[in-house]
Write a structure and sequence with these properties.
By secondary structure, the chain is of the alpha/beta class. Helices cover 49% and strands 16% of the residues. It has helices at 2-74, 82-85, 116-126, 131-147, 164-170, 189-194, 199-210, 230-235, 242-253, and strands at residues 89-93, 96-104, 109-110, 174-175, 182-183, 257-258, 264-272, 275-284, 290-296. The strands form three sheets. A five-stranded antiparallel β-sheet has the order 1-2-7-8-9, covered by helices on one side. Helix 3 packs across helix 4.
Length: 305
């Protein structure tokens, strides 16, 4: 009886060992199968996630355009306040949010229709080139546009004399949008001088806009509400010489100046489900209709329209 009992025990032990080994093999097989399934499914899930983020980002960018247009259309002012116009606006929508800044194009020199002198002065002052070199590049720009109407700013890189450094410097002060009018409330000093204003007049405009603390974006900033009041408001901060007054009046009477911009590039940054999304550069015309659209991953974005 004792021997039979031992034999029975031995058999049960061997059976338990077999079951354990079998269970281990099953676990190994399942692990391998799961790993294979994961390798197939995970990329698809990842792609689906990226597509979802891209799709939401697109809707956010379009929403930013609609919101900007609604804000502009509902505004009761007929002039631009530089600090208010350049303020970053953030709005949360569903699973994401957008942040945009409006870059008005009437604050820049229009390369499509400006004459050689204006383009040359702009290049000379902004790119710190000699007058001879600036004139040469201006001639090349005019020659190029006569046979190849500009569509994108980066076409400038095809023009002899324009390298990446010069292009980057011109990017913030040159445009291809609009009719060539200059917004006196938003144009920087370099643009005001380039279009032909005397240095003293351009300085007076910037001083008036910055206020007595000479700082942009503070409570005492000045705004030109109409073109007709430009001279009178400049007199409130500085005396104008007869030459200065003739100079500024010439541009006022020519209709070159405006006080509210009509063409914009919106730089829109998106965030989807807590993750940084793409950056969009969207060209809007006078009716706030999208005319051009470019998007880049946030890590590589830079404004090159």
């Amino acid at each position: 009886m004792v021997r039979n009992s031992q034999k029975s025990y031995s058999i049960r032990f061997r059976n338990s060992g077999s079951i354990l080994v079998t269970a281990i093999w099953i676990m190994v097989i399942l692990s391998i199968s799961c790993a294979g399934l994961y390798s197939i499914v995970y990329p698809q899930v990842k792609i689906a996630g990226r597509f979802s983020q891209w799709a939401i980002g697109q809707h956010l960018a379009r929403s930013a355009c609609l919101y900007f247009a609604a804000q502009r259309n509902s505004s009761k002012t007929e002039y631009d306040d530089l600090a208010a116009l350049r303020k970053e606006i953030t709005l949360e929508l569903g699973p994401g949010e957008f942040t945009y800044i409006a870059l008005d194009q009437e604050s820049k020199v229009n390369l499509k229709n400006s004459d050689k002198q204006i383009i040359s002065r702009l290049i000379e002052s902004v790119c710190l080139l000699s007058k001879t070199d600036a004139d040469e590049i201006a001639d090349n720009i005019i020659t190029y546009r006569s046979g190849n109407p500009f569509v994108y700013n980066n076409e400038l890189l095809a023009i002899p004399g324009v390298d990446e450094e010069i292009y980057d410097k011109l990017e913030s002060v040159a445009t291809l949008l609009g009719e060539g009018n200059i917004n006196i409330n938003t144009a920087p000093f370099s643009v005001l001088q380039a279009v032909g204003l005397n240095k003293s007049v351009a300085e007076s405009i910037i001083y008036f806009r910055n206020g007595r603390d000479d700082k942009e974006g503070t409570a005492d900033d000045g705004v030109f509400e109409t073109v007709g009041e430009i001279v009178d408001k400049l007199y409130t901060v500085r005396m104008l010489s007869t030459e200065d007054e003739i100079n500024i009046n010439f541009f006022i009477n020519s209709g070159k100046f405006i006080v509210k911009s009509k063409n914009f590039i919106l730089e829109v940054k998106t965030e989807v489900k807590g993750k940084e999304g793409n950056v969009y550069y969207i060209v809007l015309d006078q009716g706030y209709v999208i005319k051009d659209w470019r998007e880049e991953a946030a890590a590589v974005s830079s404004l090159k329209i």
